[in-house]
Amino acid sequence: MVLGGGGFIGTNLCKRLVASGFTVGAFGHSPRFPQELRGVDWHEGDFSNAAAVAAAVGTSEVVFHLVGTTPQPANIDMAGDLERHVIPSLALMDICRQAGVRRIVFVSSGGTVYGKPRDVPTPETAATDPIAAYGISKLAVEKYLALFEHLHGLDYRVLRITNPFGPFQVPFKSQGVIAAVVSRTLREERVEVWGDGSVVRDFIFVDDVVDALLSAATDSGNGRIFNVGTGEGRSLLEVISLVERLLDRKVRIDFKPGRALDVPVSVVAIDRARALLGWSPKTSFETGLQRTVDWWRTRPTYRAL
Amino acid sequence: MVLGGGGFIGTNLCKRLVASGFTVGAFGHSPRFPQELRGVDWHEGDFSNAAAVAAAVGTSEVVFHLVGTTPQPANIDMAGDLERHVIPSLALMDICRQAGVRRIVFVSSGGTVYGKPRDVPTPETAATDPIAAYGISKLAVEKYLALFEHLHGLDYRVLRITNPFGPFQVPFKSQGVIAAVVSRTLREERVEVWGDGSVVRDFIFVDDVVDALLSAATDSGNGRIFNVGTGEGRSLLEVISLVERLLDRKVRIDFKPGRALDVPVSVVAIDRARALLGWSPKTSFETGLQRTVDWWRTRPTYRAL
Question: What ipTM was reported for this prediction?
Protein backbone atom coordinates (compact mmCIF):
# COMPACT_ATOMS: atom_id res chain seq x y z
CA MET A 1 0.00 0.00 0.00
CA VAL A 2 1.50 3.25 -1.17
CA LEU A 3 0.06 6.23 0.73
CA GLY A 4 0.60 9.29 -1.42
CA GLY A 5 0.83 6.97 -4.41
CA GLY A 6 -0.40 9.57 -6.86
CA GLY A 7 2.54 11.93 -6.40
CA PHE A 8 5.97 12.03 -7.95
CA ILE A 9 7.80 9.34 -5.98
CA GLY A 10 4.54 7.43 -5.48
CA THR A 11 3.88 7.10 -9.21
CA ASN A 12 7.40 5.84 -9.85
CA LEU A 13 7.18 3.42 -6.91
CA CYS A 14 3.78 2.04 -7.95
CA LYS A 15 4.96 1.44 -11.52
CA ARG A 16 8.00 -0.46 -10.29
CA LEU A 17 5.99 -2.52 -7.79
CA VAL A 18 3.46 -3.50 -10.46
CA ALA A 19 6.24 -4.35 -12.92
CA SER A 20 7.85 -6.53 -10.24
CA GLY A 21 4.63 -8.51 -9.81
CA PHE A 22 3.47 -7.25 -6.41
CA THR A 23 -0.16 -6.69 -5.50
CA VAL A 24 -0.21 -2.94 -5.18
CA GLY A 25 -2.69 -0.53 -3.67
CA ALA A 26 -2.33 3.21 -3.52
CA PHE A 27 -4.09 6.00 -1.63
CA GLY A 28 -4.29 9.70 -2.09
CA HIS A 29 -5.92 12.59 -3.83
CA SER A 30 -6.58 12.38 -7.55
CA PRO A 31 -3.32 11.08 -9.03
CA ARG A 32 -1.50 13.34 -11.44
CA PHE A 33 -0.92 10.53 -13.93
CA PRO A 34 -3.81 8.08 -13.50
CA GLN A 35 -2.96 6.26 -16.74
CA GLU A 36 0.42 5.31 -15.19
CA LEU A 37 -1.27 3.49 -12.30
CA ARG A 38 -2.60 0.59 -14.36
CA GLY A 39 -2.70 -2.50 -12.19
CA VAL A 40 -2.82 -0.45 -8.99
CA ASP A 41 -5.85 -0.70 -6.71
CA TRP A 42 -6.51 3.01 -6.28
CA HIS A 43 -8.15 4.40 -3.12
CA GLU A 44 -9.21 8.01 -3.34
CA GLY A 45 -9.17 9.84 -0.02
CA ASP A 46 -7.71 12.36 2.35
CA PHE A 47 -4.95 11.31 4.71
CA SER A 48 -6.81 13.01 7.59
CA ASN A 49 -9.69 10.56 7.15
CA ALA A 50 -8.63 7.66 9.37
CA ALA A 51 -11.48 5.42 8.23
CA ALA A 52 -10.47 5.87 4.59
CA VAL A 53 -6.83 5.18 5.44
CA ALA A 54 -7.81 2.06 7.41
CA ALA A 55 -9.90 0.78 4.49
CA ALA A 56 -6.98 1.35 2.12
CA VAL A 57 -4.42 -0.30 4.39
CA GLY A 58 -6.67 -3.37 4.74
CA THR A 59 -4.44 -6.43 5.00
CA SER A 60 -1.37 -4.91 3.35
CA GLU A 61 1.98 -6.37 4.31
CA VAL A 62 4.03 -3.22 3.82
CA VAL A 63 2.83 0.37 3.95
CA PHE A 64 4.87 3.09 2.23
CA HIS A 65 4.07 6.44 3.82
CA LEU A 66 4.84 9.05 1.19
CA VAL A 67 2.15 11.55 2.12
CA GLY A 68 3.78 14.88 2.49
CA THR A 69 3.13 18.51 2.72
CA THR A 70 5.57 20.87 1.04
CA PRO A 71 8.14 23.05 2.81
CA GLN A 72 6.71 26.49 2.20
CA PRO A 73 3.07 26.02 3.26
CA ALA A 74 4.24 24.17 6.39
CA ASN A 75 6.14 27.26 7.51
CA ILE A 76 3.16 29.48 6.95
CA ASP A 77 0.73 27.26 8.88
CA MET A 78 2.76 25.17 11.32
CA ALA A 79 -0.24 24.05 13.36
CA GLY A 80 -2.06 23.01 10.19
CA ASP A 81 1.03 21.06 9.15
CA LEU A 82 0.90 19.14 12.44
CA GLU A 83 -2.83 18.54 12.01
CA ARG A 84 -2.57 17.38 8.40
CA HIS A 85 0.66 15.44 8.59
CA VAL A 86 1.70 14.36 12.09
CA ILE A 87 -1.67 13.61 13.70
CA PRO A 88 -2.88 11.47 10.75
CA SER A 89 0.51 9.71 10.82
CA LEU A 90 -0.20 8.75 14.44
CA ALA A 91 -3.59 7.42 13.37
CA LEU A 92 -1.84 5.47 10.60
CA MET A 93 0.50 3.84 13.12
CA ASP A 94 -2.49 2.69 15.18
CA ILE A 95 -4.18 1.39 12.04
CA CYS A 96 -1.06 -0.54 10.97
CA ARG A 97 -0.60 -1.98 14.43
CA GLN A 98 -4.18 -3.22 14.55
CA ALA A 99 -4.09 -4.49 10.96
CA GLY A 100 -0.88 -6.46 11.60
CA VAL A 101 1.08 -4.57 8.93
CA ARG A 102 4.59 -5.99 8.83
CA ARG A 103 6.39 -2.68 8.27
CA ILE A 104 5.93 1.03 7.60
CA VAL A 105 8.47 2.66 5.29
CA PHE A 106 8.34 6.42 5.88
CA VAL A 107 9.73 9.01 3.52
CA SER A 108 11.39 11.73 5.57
CA SER A 109 13.40 14.69 4.42
CA GLY A 110 17.18 14.57 4.06
CA GLY A 111 17.16 18.21 3.06
CA THR A 112 15.38 19.66 6.09
CA VAL A 113 15.69 17.49 9.22
CA TYR A 114 19.33 18.47 9.80
CA GLY A 115 18.94 22.21 9.38
CA LYS A 116 22.25 23.94 8.71
CA PRO A 117 24.62 20.98 8.91
CA ARG A 118 27.92 21.16 10.77
CA ASP A 119 29.31 18.19 8.81
CA VAL A 120 28.94 17.80 5.05
CA PRO A 121 28.15 15.18 3.83
CA THR A 122 25.85 14.87 6.84
CA PRO A 123 25.49 11.49 8.57
CA GLU A 124 22.28 10.23 10.19
CA THR A 125 23.82 10.80 13.64
CA ALA A 126 24.18 14.56 13.10
CA ALA A 127 22.19 17.02 15.20
CA THR A 128 18.68 17.62 13.89
CA ASP A 129 17.92 21.34 14.12
CA PRO A 130 15.49 22.11 11.29
CA ILE A 131 15.08 25.68 10.09
CA ALA A 132 11.79 24.76 8.43
CA ALA A 133 8.57 23.52 10.03
CA TYR A 134 8.45 20.80 7.37
CA GLY A 135 11.60 19.28 8.88
CA ILE A 136 10.17 19.44 12.40
CA SER A 137 7.03 17.53 11.47
CA LYS A 138 9.03 14.92 9.54
CA LEU A 139 11.25 14.52 12.59
CA ALA A 140 8.23 14.19 14.88
CA VAL A 141 6.87 11.34 12.74
CA GLU A 142 10.27 9.64 12.89
CA LYS A 143 10.23 9.87 16.71
CA TYR A 144 6.68 8.53 16.96
CA LEU A 145 7.60 5.59 14.71
CA ALA A 146 10.45 4.73 17.10
CA LEU A 147 8.04 5.05 20.03
CA PHE A 148 5.49 2.75 18.36
CA GLU A 149 8.18 0.15 17.82
CA HIS A 150 9.23 0.52 21.47
CA LEU A 151 5.67 0.30 22.81
CA HIS A 152 4.01 -2.03 20.33
CA GLY A 153 6.71 -3.70 18.24
CA LEU A 154 5.53 -2.03 15.03
CA ASP A 155 8.43 -2.36 12.59
CA TYR A 156 9.51 0.62 10.47
CA ARG A 157 12.19 2.17 8.31
CA VAL A 158 12.79 5.86 7.69
CA LEU A 159 14.39 7.13 4.49
CA ARG A 160 15.67 10.69 4.69
CA ILE A 161 15.56 11.47 1.01
CA THR A 162 17.36 14.51 -0.36
CA ASN A 163 16.27 16.21 -3.61
CA PRO A 164 14.71 13.62 -5.92
CA PHE A 165 14.14 14.37 -9.59
CA GLY A 166 13.00 12.53 -12.69
CA PRO A 167 9.95 11.61 -14.73
CA PHE A 168 6.51 12.38 -13.26
CA GLN A 169 7.84 15.23 -11.16
CA VAL A 170 5.96 18.42 -11.85
CA PRO A 171 6.87 21.77 -10.37
CA PHE A 172 4.50 22.28 -7.45
CA LYS A 173 4.53 24.89 -4.72
CA SER A 174 8.24 25.59 -5.20
CA GLN A 175 9.26 21.94 -5.05
CA GLY A 176 10.94 20.25 -8.00
CA VAL A 177 13.42 22.82 -9.20
CA ILE A 178 14.79 20.58 -11.97
CA ALA A 179 11.29 19.91 -13.28
CA ALA A 180 10.63 23.65 -13.24
CA VAL A 181 13.84 24.57 -15.04
CA VAL A 182 13.44 21.92 -17.74
CA SER A 183 9.73 22.35 -18.42
CA ARG A 184 9.67 26.13 -18.34
CA THR A 185 12.72 26.40 -20.58
CA LEU A 186 11.18 23.96 -23.08
CA ARG A 187 8.09 26.19 -23.08
CA GLU A 188 10.34 29.26 -23.51
CA GLU A 189 9.23 30.65 -20.16
CA ARG A 190 11.36 32.32 -17.52
CA VAL A 191 12.30 30.43 -14.34
CA GLU A 192 12.09 31.85 -10.81
CA VAL A 193 15.06 31.04 -8.60
CA TRP A 194 15.07 31.83 -4.87
CA GLY A 195 18.41 33.32 -3.90
CA ASP A 196 21.46 33.61 -6.17
CA GLY A 197 21.58 29.98 -7.30
CA SER A 198 24.56 29.14 -5.13
CA VAL A 199 22.62 26.76 -2.85
CA VAL A 200 24.06 23.26 -3.05
CA ARG A 201 21.76 20.26 -3.09
CA ASP A 202 22.12 16.50 -3.25
CA PHE A 203 20.00 15.64 -6.31
CA ILE A 204 19.09 11.99 -6.67
CA PHE A 205 17.38 10.32 -9.61
CA VAL A 206 14.00 8.86 -8.70
CA ASP A 207 14.82 5.32 -9.92
CA ASP A 208 17.52 5.19 -7.25
CA VAL A 209 15.02 6.41 -4.65
CA VAL A 210 12.65 3.60 -5.66
CA ASP A 211 15.51 1.10 -5.29
CA ALA A 212 16.06 2.38 -1.75
CA LEU A 213 12.36 2.12 -0.90
CA LEU A 214 12.29 -1.51 -2.05
CA SER A 215 15.43 -2.33 -0.08
CA ALA A 216 13.96 -0.69 3.02
CA ALA A 217 10.78 -2.73 2.67
CA THR A 218 12.63 -6.04 2.90
CA ASP A 219 15.77 -5.26 4.90
CA SER A 220 16.24 -7.33 8.06
CA GLY A 221 19.01 -5.37 9.76
CA ASN A 222 19.02 -3.24 12.90
CA GLY A 223 19.18 0.15 11.18
CA ARG A 224 16.04 2.25 11.19
CA ILE A 225 16.93 5.66 9.75
CA PHE A 226 18.79 5.96 6.45
CA ASN A 227 19.95 8.89 4.38
CA VAL A 228 19.08 8.46 0.71
CA GLY A 229 21.01 10.75 -1.57
CA THR A 230 24.12 10.55 -3.69
CA GLY A 231 26.59 12.02 -1.21
CA GLU A 232 27.51 14.60 -3.84
CA GLY A 233 26.36 18.18 -4.03
CA ARG A 234 25.95 20.55 -6.91
CA SER A 235 24.80 24.12 -7.00
CA LEU A 236 21.62 25.20 -8.68
CA LEU A 237 23.71 27.20 -11.16
CA GLU A 238 25.63 24.05 -12.14
CA VAL A 239 22.34 22.24 -12.66
CA ILE A 240 21.03 25.07 -14.81
CA SER A 241 24.17 25.09 -16.88
CA LEU A 242 23.85 21.36 -17.57
CA VAL A 243 20.18 21.79 -18.52
CA GLU A 244 21.25 24.49 -20.99
CA ARG A 245 23.75 22.09 -22.54
CA LEU A 246 21.22 19.23 -22.82
CA LEU A 247 18.47 21.46 -24.25
CA ASP A 248 20.89 23.55 -26.28
CA ARG A 249 18.90 26.52 -25.08
CA LYS A 250 19.45 29.39 -22.65
CA VAL A 251 17.66 29.14 -19.30
CA ARG A 252 16.20 32.54 -18.50
CA ILE A 253 16.20 33.19 -14.78
CA ASP A 254 14.36 35.64 -12.52
CA PHE A 255 16.36 35.76 -9.32
CA LYS A 256 14.15 36.22 -6.23
CA PRO A 257 15.28 36.94 -2.66
CA GLY A 258 16.55 33.88 -0.78
CA ARG A 259 14.13 32.18 1.62
CA ALA A 260 14.73 31.78 5.35
CA LEU A 261 13.80 28.11 5.16
CA ASP A 262 16.50 27.20 2.62
CA VAL A 263 19.77 25.89 4.04
CA PRO A 264 22.85 26.88 1.99
CA VAL A 265 24.13 23.31 1.64
CA SER A 266 22.40 19.96 1.90
CA VAL A 267 24.41 16.86 1.05
CA VAL A 268 24.03 13.62 3.00
CA ALA A 269 26.42 10.78 3.80
CA ILE A 270 25.04 7.47 2.55
CA ASP A 271 27.46 5.03 4.14
CA ARG A 272 24.77 3.57 6.38
CA ALA A 273 22.40 2.72 3.52
CA ARG A 274 25.32 1.27 1.54
CA ALA A 275 26.38 -0.92 4.45
CA LEU A 276 23.03 -1.99 5.91
CA LEU A 277 20.62 -1.87 2.97
CA GLY A 278 23.18 -2.89 0.36
CA TRP A 279 21.85 0.04 -1.61
CA SER A 280 23.69 2.64 -3.63
CA PRO A 281 22.63 5.12 -6.29
CA LYS A 282 23.26 3.80 -9.81
CA THR A 283 22.33 6.72 -12.04
CA SER A 284 24.80 9.52 -12.71
CA PHE A 285 23.40 13.01 -12.46
CA GLU A 286 23.94 13.56 -16.20
CA THR A 287 22.10 10.36 -17.13
CA GLY A 288 19.24 11.16 -14.76
CA LEU A 289 18.93 14.65 -16.14
CA GLN A 290 18.96 13.34 -19.72
CA ARG A 291 16.11 10.95 -18.87
CA THR A 292 14.20 13.76 -17.23
CA VAL A 293 14.62 15.94 -20.33
CA ASP A 294 13.57 13.03 -22.55
CA TRP A 295 10.44 12.54 -20.46
CA TRP A 296 9.47 16.19 -20.67
CA ARG A 297 9.97 16.10 -24.46
CA THR A 298 7.29 13.39 -24.65
CA ARG A 299 4.75 15.69 -22.94
CA PRO A 300 2.54 17.58 -25.35
CA THR A 301 3.37 21.27 -24.97
CA TYR A 302 5.89 20.28 -22.26
CA ARG A 303 3.19 20.43 -19.62
CA ALA A 304 2.52 17.73 -17.09
CA LEU A 305 -1.24 18.00 -17.04
CA MET B 1 3.93 36.03 32.98
CA VAL B 2 4.00 32.48 34.25
CA LEU B 3 1.92 30.14 32.09
CA GLY B 4 1.02 27.16 34.20
CA GLY B 5 1.58 29.34 37.25
CA GLY B 6 -0.82 27.38 39.41
CA GLY B 7 1.12 24.14 39.34
CA PHE B 8 4.05 22.88 41.39
CA ILE B 9 6.98 24.72 39.81
CA GLY B 10 4.71 27.62 38.86
CA THR B 11 3.63 28.27 42.45
CA ASN B 12 7.23 28.26 43.65
CA LEU B 13 8.32 30.51 40.79
CA CYS B 14 5.49 33.00 41.33
CA LYS B 15 6.25 33.26 45.06
CA ARG B 16 9.91 33.96 44.36
CA LEU B 17 9.14 36.52 41.65
CA VAL B 18 6.74 38.39 43.91
CA ALA B 19 9.23 38.27 46.79
CA SER B 20 11.89 39.70 44.45
CA GLY B 21 9.65 42.66 43.60
CA PHE B 22 8.67 41.78 40.03
CA THR B 23 5.27 42.50 38.58
CA VAL B 24 3.96 38.98 38.14
CA GLY B 25 1.06 37.56 36.18
CA ALA B 26 0.11 33.92 35.99
CA PHE B 27 -2.19 31.87 33.79
CA GLY B 28 -3.75 28.47 34.12
CA HIS B 29 -6.54 26.39 35.49
CA SER B 30 -7.64 26.92 39.09
CA PRO B 31 -4.39 27.04 41.07
CA ARG B 32 -3.86 24.34 43.68
CA PHE B 33 -2.73 26.85 46.32
CA PRO B 34 -4.48 30.13 45.52
CA GLN B 35 -3.56 31.64 48.89
CA GLU B 36 0.12 31.31 47.89
CA LEU B 37 -0.37 33.52 44.84
CA ARG B 38 -0.91 36.76 46.74
CA GLY B 39 0.42 39.63 44.67
CA VAL B 40 0.10 37.65 41.43
CA ASP B 41 -2.26 38.89 38.73
CA TRP B 42 -4.11 35.64 38.10
CA HIS B 43 -5.62 34.81 34.69
CA GLU B 44 -7.90 31.81 34.64
CA GLY B 45 -8.00 30.00 31.32
CA ASP B 46 -7.17 27.05 29.12
CA PHE B 47 -3.88 27.02 27.24
CA SER B 48 -5.76 26.00 24.07
CA ASN B 49 -7.64 29.31 24.14
CA ALA B 50 -5.33 31.60 22.18
CA ALA B 51 -7.36 34.73 22.95
CA ALA B 52 -7.12 34.04 26.69
CA VAL B 53 -3.38 33.40 26.41
CA ALA B 54 -2.91 36.62 24.41
CA ALA B 55 -4.83 38.61 27.02
CA ALA B 56 -2.69 37.13 29.78
CA VAL B 57 0.61 37.73 27.96
CA GLY B 58 -0.35 41.37 27.36
CA THR B 59 2.80 43.47 27.54
CA SER B 60 4.87 41.01 29.59
CA GLU B 61 8.62 41.19 29.19
CA VAL B 62 9.35 37.54 29.88
CA VAL B 63 7.01 34.58 29.48
CA PHE B 64 7.69 31.39 31.40
CA HIS B 65 6.03 28.48 29.62
CA LEU B 66 5.44 25.82 32.27
CA VAL B 67 2.23 24.39 30.87
CA GLY B 68 2.63 20.70 30.65
CA THR B 69 0.80 17.52 30.23
CA THR B 70 1.96 14.50 32.19
CA PRO B 71 3.85 11.54 30.78
CA GLN B 72 1.25 8.81 31.05
CA PRO B 73 -1.80 10.49 29.48
CA ALA B 74 0.41 11.73 26.63
CA ASN B 75 1.27 8.15 25.72
CA ILE B 76 -2.36 7.11 25.77
CA ASP B 77 -3.54 9.97 23.55
CA MET B 78 -0.58 11.17 21.51
CA ALA B 79 -2.64 13.21 19.07
CA GLY B 80 -4.45 14.89 21.96
CA ASP B 81 -1.08 15.69 23.50
CA LEU B 82 -0.02 17.44 20.27
CA GLU B 83 -3.33 19.30 20.16
CA ARG B 84 -3.24 20.40 23.78
CA HIS B 85 0.46 21.09 24.14
CA VAL B 86 2.33 21.66 20.87
CA ILE B 87 -0.29 23.47 18.80
CA PRO B 88 -1.11 25.98 21.59
CA SER B 89 2.65 26.46 22.09
CA LEU B 90 2.87 27.50 18.42
CA ALA B 91 0.03 29.95 19.01
CA LEU B 92 1.91 31.25 22.06
CA MET B 93 5.03 31.90 19.97
CA ASP B 94 2.98 33.96 17.52
CA ILE B 95 1.39 35.86 20.40
CA CYS B 96 4.78 36.61 21.98
CA ARG B 97 6.24 37.71 18.66
CA GLN B 98 3.36 40.10 18.05
CA ALA B 99 3.36 41.36 21.65
CA GLY B 100 7.10 42.07 21.55
CA VAL B 101 7.87 39.69 24.41
CA ARG B 102 11.60 39.80 25.10
CA ARG B 103 12.03 36.09 25.83
CA ILE B 104 10.21 32.79 26.32
CA VAL B 105 11.64 30.45 28.94
CA PHE B 106 10.31 26.97 28.24
CA VAL B 107 10.32 24.11 30.72
CA SER B 108 11.23 20.94 28.85
CA SER B 109 11.87 17.49 30.21
CA GLY B 110 15.37 16.31 31.15
CA GLY B 111 13.93 12.92 32.03
CA THR B 112 12.25 12.09 28.73
CA VAL B 113 13.77 13.93 25.74
CA TYR B 114 16.88 11.73 25.68
CA GLY B 115 15.13 8.38 25.95
CA LYS B 116 17.51 5.64 27.05
CA PRO B 117 20.75 7.58 27.29
CA ARG B 118 24.03 6.22 25.95
CA ASP B 119 26.06 8.56 28.18
CA VAL B 120 25.27 9.15 31.87
CA PRO B 121 25.27 11.92 33.02
CA THR B 122 23.71 12.93 29.71
CA PRO B 123 24.82 16.18 28.04
CA GLU B 124 22.52 18.42 25.99
CA THR B 125 24.28 17.27 22.80
CA ALA B 126 23.22 13.65 23.28
CA ALA B 127 20.83 11.97 20.84
CA THR B 128 17.17 12.65 21.58
CA ASP B 129 15.23 9.43 21.14
CA PRO B 130 12.28 9.62 23.55
CA ILE B 131 10.48 6.46 24.57
CA ALA B 132 7.50 8.51 25.74
CA ALA B 133 5.19 10.75 23.71
CA TYR B 134 5.61 13.40 26.39
CA GLY B 135 9.29 13.69 25.42
CA ILE B 136 8.44 13.95 21.72
CA SER B 137 6.06 16.86 22.21
CA LYS B 138 8.53 18.66 24.51
CA LEU B 139 11.18 18.17 21.83
CA ALA B 140 8.86 19.47 19.12
CA VAL B 141 8.25 22.67 21.10
CA GLU B 142 12.02 23.08 21.52
CA LYS B 143 12.48 22.78 17.74
CA TYR B 144 9.70 25.26 16.99
CA LEU B 145 11.23 27.76 19.42
CA ALA B 146 14.53 27.51 17.52
CA LEU B 147 12.64 27.97 14.26
CA PHE B 148 10.83 31.06 15.58
CA GLU B 149 14.15 32.57 16.59
CA HIS B 150 15.52 31.76 13.12
CA LEU B 151 12.51 33.17 11.28
CA HIS B 152 11.41 36.00 13.55
CA GLY B 153 14.18 36.71 16.05
CA LEU B 154 12.02 35.62 19.01
CA ASP B 155 14.45 34.97 21.87
CA TYR B 156 14.09 31.87 24.05
CA ARG B 157 15.72 29.55 26.54
CA VAL B 158 14.88 25.89 27.14
CA LEU B 159 15.44 24.23 30.50
CA ARG B 160 15.41 20.44 30.39
CA ILE B 161 14.48 19.85 34.01
CA THR B 162 14.89 16.41 35.53
CA ASN B 163 12.78 15.29 38.53
CA PRO B 164 11.90 18.32 40.65
CA PHE B 165 10.54 17.90 44.17
CA GLY B 166 9.66 20.11 47.12
CA PRO B 167 6.84 22.10 48.71
CA PHE B 168 3.63 22.53 46.69
CA GLN B 169 4.19 19.34 44.72
CA VAL B 170 1.23 17.04 45.05
CA PRO B 171 1.12 13.52 43.63
CA PHE B 172 -0.80 13.81 40.38
CA LYS B 173 -1.27 11.27 37.60
CA SER B 174 1.84 9.34 38.63
CA GLN B 175 4.08 12.42 38.75
CA GLY B 176 5.78 13.48 41.95
CA VAL B 177 7.02 10.24 43.43
CA ILE B 178 8.64 11.93 46.45
CA ALA B 179 5.43 13.81 47.24
CA ALA B 180 3.51 10.55 46.97
CA VAL B 181 5.90 8.59 49.21
CA VAL B 182 6.04 11.29 51.90
CA SER B 183 2.34 12.20 52.00
CA ARG B 184 0.99 8.67 51.79
CA THR B 185 3.38 7.42 54.46
CA LEU B 186 2.41 10.29 56.77
CA ARG B 187 -1.23 9.28 56.23
CA GLU B 188 -0.25 5.65 56.88
CA GLU B 189 -1.27 4.63 53.37
CA ARG B 190 0.53 2.27 51.05
CA VAL B 191 2.54 3.63 48.11
CA GLU B 192 2.39 2.28 44.54
CA VAL B 193 5.76 1.95 42.84
CA TRP B 194 6.07 1.12 39.13
CA GLY B 195 8.79 -1.47 38.65
CA ASP B 196 11.15 -2.74 41.34
CA GLY B 197 12.33 0.65 42.58
CA SER B 198 15.73 0.33 40.91
CA VAL B 199 15.11 3.17 38.44
CA VAL B 200 17.63 5.95 38.94
CA ARG B 201 16.54 9.57 38.73
CA ASP B 202 18.16 12.97 39.07
CA PHE B 203 16.03 14.60 41.78
CA ILE B 204 16.40 18.35 42.10
CA PHE B 205 14.96 20.58 44.80
CA VAL B 206 12.47 23.09 43.45
CA ASP B 207 14.28 26.17 44.85
CA ASP B 208 17.23 25.28 42.62
CA VAL B 209 14.88 24.94 39.65
CA VAL B 210 13.51 28.42 40.37
CA ASP B 211 17.09 29.75 40.51
CA ALA B 212 17.68 28.27 37.05
CA LEU B 213 14.47 29.77 35.66
CA LEU B 214 15.50 33.23 36.88
CA SER B 215 19.00 32.84 35.43
CA ALA B 216 17.53 31.74 32.10
CA ALA B 217 15.24 34.78 32.05
CA THR B 218 18.13 37.24 32.18
CA ASP B 219 21.08 35.36 30.65
CA SER B 220 22.70 37.03 27.67
CA GLY B 221 24.85 34.19 26.35
CA ASN B 222 24.61 32.12 23.19
CA GLY B 223 23.31 28.93 24.81
CA ARG B 224 19.68 28.05 24.27
CA ILE B 225 19.11 24.58 25.75
CA PHE B 226 20.23 23.74 29.28
CA ASN B 227 19.94 20.64 31.41
CA VAL B 228 18.74 21.46 34.91
CA GLY B 229 19.38 18.70 37.41
CA THR B 230 22.02 17.86 39.97
CA GLY B 231 24.19 15.57 37.85
CA GLU B 232 23.72 12.89 40.51
CA GLY B 233 21.38 9.94 40.41
CA ARG B 234 19.75 7.95 43.14
CA SER B 235 17.41 5.01 42.94
CA LEU B 236 13.85 5.15 44.09
CA LEU B 237 14.70 2.60 46.80
CA GLU B 238 17.42 4.91 48.15
CA VAL B 239 14.93 7.76 48.23
CA ILE B 240 12.40 5.62 50.07
CA SER B 241 14.99 4.56 52.58
CA LEU B 242 15.89 8.21 53.31
CA VAL B 243 12.20 9.09 53.68
CA GLU B 244 11.87 6.26 56.21
CA ARG B 245 14.78 7.68 58.18
CA LEU B 246 13.39 11.23 58.17
CA LEU B 247 9.86 10.14 59.09
CA ASP B 248 11.07 7.38 61.42
CA ARG B 249 8.38 5.26 59.85
CA LYS B 250 8.26 2.33 57.43
CA VAL B 251 7.19 3.10 53.85
CA ARG B 252 4.78 0.39 52.76
CA ILE B 253 5.13 -0.31 49.05
CA ASP B 254 2.92 -2.01 46.48
CA PHE B 255 5.22 -2.90 43.60
CA LYS B 256 3.48 -2.66 40.22
CA PRO B 257 4.81 -3.81 36.84
CA GLY B 258 7.34 -1.43 35.26
CA ARG B 259 6.05 0.93 32.57
CA ALA B 260 7.31 1.00 29.02
CA LEU B 261 7.70 4.77 29.17
CA ASP B 262 10.13 4.75 32.10
CA VAL B 263 13.83 4.79 31.24
CA PRO B 264 16.02 2.85 33.69
CA VAL B 265 18.40 5.76 34.32
CA SER B 266 18.00 9.50 33.90
CA VAL B 267 20.81 11.72 35.15
CA VAL B 268 21.88 14.83 33.25
CA ALA B 269 25.19 16.65 32.91
CA ILE B 270 24.86 20.27 34.03
CA ASP B 271 28.21 21.67 32.90
CA ARG B 272 26.56 23.91 30.32
CA ALA B 273 24.22 25.61 32.80
CA ARG B 274 27.12 26.01 35.24
CA ALA B 275 29.32 27.61 32.58
CA LEU B 276 26.82 29.73 30.66
CA LEU B 277 24.10 30.53 33.21
CA GLY B 278 26.43 30.69 36.20
CA TRP B 279 23.89 28.45 37.87
CA SER B 280 24.36 25.42 40.05
CA PRO B 281 22.11 23.54 42.47
CA LYS B 282 22.64 24.66 46.07
CA THR B 283 20.43 22.31 48.05
CA SER B 284 21.64 18.85 49.02
CA PHE B 285 19.15 16.05 48.47
CA GLU B 286 18.90 15.44 52.21
CA THR B 287 18.16 19.12 52.95
CA GLY B 288 15.60 19.29 50.15
CA LEU B 289 13.89 16.16 51.36
CA GLN B 290 13.82 17.46 54.94
CA ARG B 291 12.16 20.67 53.74
CA THR B 292 9.64 18.66 51.76
CA VAL B 293 8.80 16.55 54.80
CA ASP B 294 8.50 19.70 56.94
CA TRP B 295 6.11 21.19 54.41
CA TRP B 296 3.90 18.09 54.37
CA ARG B 297 3.82 18.12 58.16
CA THR B 298 2.23 21.60 58.04
CA ARG B 299 -0.65 20.29 55.91
CA PRO B 300 -3.75 19.33 57.87
CA THR B 301 -4.17 15.56 57.52
CA TYR B 302 -1.09 15.56 55.29
CA ARG B 303 -3.22 16.29 52.26
CA ALA B 304 -2.55 19.03 49.76
CA LEU B 305 -6.12 20.08 49.16
Answer: 0.94
